[in-house]
């Protein structure tokens, strides 16, 4: 049996009782290490579970998971995922490959940013399509997520923006030269994400898009979330321009672009506003 076990968003204690019981009985325990991170390292997890962990990077899961699935034919194997196991499509792919090999699977769910985002006061059923904002490079600066934000805003829906993380990535030079040298981990901040969204505005304006047709502007309200589920959780509501210079500290960060606001959502967001005079002016009619 292959168990996909969610670890939640905080620390070692966020695993469910059911999940912990499964981990303790499994002969092999893998820790997925590339779609998200906890506030604690593998060593602390090992101490809490009383189990040695096999750290599974993207390459192992997406290309070399044969050993894990082979073991799961005869033994109980756990695959630990920060958040909820099915919050990333790559884990659905793992389940499909297990099915192809005749390996039974079971999912143990847990808290995910997809639901925990409600901590900022926005109602979950008012969210539209979630988008991923990737780190730009000198030669690759995609804008596709703007269109999804625009579609959500047109329907009055909020947009949760998941921000890029880079774990065990190789530089272009090392890829070309075939060297197994990895870059340090990098985590996109809300400031970087807001800056990219503002730059996209400039591109749209240069393309002749009227200001009235833009999905948002620099003074639009947005919500920055940092370390959701941890004791140091931080939530800030301000303009997109102000967010571009906002320091919410250590990772992980997420960004929300609100749509039409319900009166209760306005009251909740106001609790996190850095400038309540600005907030009351911008959000008084729910837009």
From TrEMBL:
<protein>
    <recommendedName>
        <fullName>diphthine methyl ester synthase</fullName>
        <ecNumber>2.1.1.314</ecNumber>
    </recommendedName>
</protein>
<dbReference type="InterPro" id="IPR035996">
    <property type="entry name" value="4pyrrol_Methylase_sf"/>
</dbReference>
<feature type="binding site">
    <location>
        <position position="84"/>
    </location>
    <ligand>
        <name>S-adenosyl-L-methionine</name>
    </ligand>
</feature>
<dbReference type="InterPro" id="IPR004551">
    <property type="entry name" value="Dphthn_synthase"/>
</dbReference>
<feature type="binding site">
    <location>
        <position position="9"/>
    </location>
    <ligand>
        <name>S-adenosyl-L-methionine</name>
    </ligand>
</feature>
<feature type="domain" description="Tetrapyrrole methylase">
    <location>
        <begin position="1"/>
        <end position="241"/>
    </location>
</feature>
<keyword id="KW-0489">Methyltransferase</keyword>
<dbReference type="InterPro" id="IPR000878">
    <property type="entry name" value="4pyrrol_Mease"/>
</dbReference>
<dbReference type="GO" id="GO:0017183">
    <property type="term" value="P:protein histidyl modification to diphthamide"/>
</dbReference>
<dbReference type="InterPro" id="IPR014776">
    <property type="entry name" value="4pyrrole_Mease_sub2"/>
</dbReference>
<feature type="binding site">
    <location>
        <position position="163"/>
    </location>
    <ligand>
        <name>S-adenosyl-L-methionine</name>
    </ligand>
</feature>
<comment type="function">
    <text>S-adenosyl-L-methionine-dependent methyltransferase that catalyzes four methylations of the modified target histidine residue in translation elongation factor 2 (EF-2), to form an intermediate called diphthine methyl ester. The four successive methylation reactions represent the second step of diphthamide biosynthesis.</text>
</comment>
<keyword id="KW-0808">Transferase</keyword>
<dbReference type="Pfam" id="PF00590">
    <property type="entry name" value="TP_methylase"/>
</dbReference>
<feature type="binding site">
    <location>
        <position position="87"/>
    </location>
    <ligand>
        <name>S-adenosyl-L-methionine</name>
    </ligand>
</feature>
<comment type="similarity">
    <text>Belongs to the diphthine synthase family.</text>
</comment>
<comment type="pathway">
    <text>Protein modification; peptidyl-diphthamide biosynthesis.</text>
</comment>
<dbReference type="GO" id="GO:0032259">
    <property type="term" value="P:methylation"/>
</dbReference>
<dbReference type="GO" id="GO:0141133">
    <property type="term" value="F:diphthine methyl ester synthase activity"/>
</dbReference>
<feature type="binding site">
    <location>
        <begin position="112"/>
        <end position="113"/>
    </location>
    <ligand>
        <name>S-adenosyl-L-methionine</name>
    </ligand>
</feature>
<feature type="binding site">
    <location>
        <position position="253"/>
    </location>
    <ligand>
        <name>S-adenosyl-L-methionine</name>
    </ligand>
</feature>
<keyword id="KW-0949">S-adenosyl-L-methionine</keyword>
<dbReference type="InterPro" id="IPR014777">
    <property type="entry name" value="4pyrrole_Mease_sub1"/>
</dbReference>
<feature type="binding site">
    <location>
        <position position="228"/>
    </location>
    <ligand>
        <name>S-adenosyl-L-methionine</name>
    </ligand>
</feature>
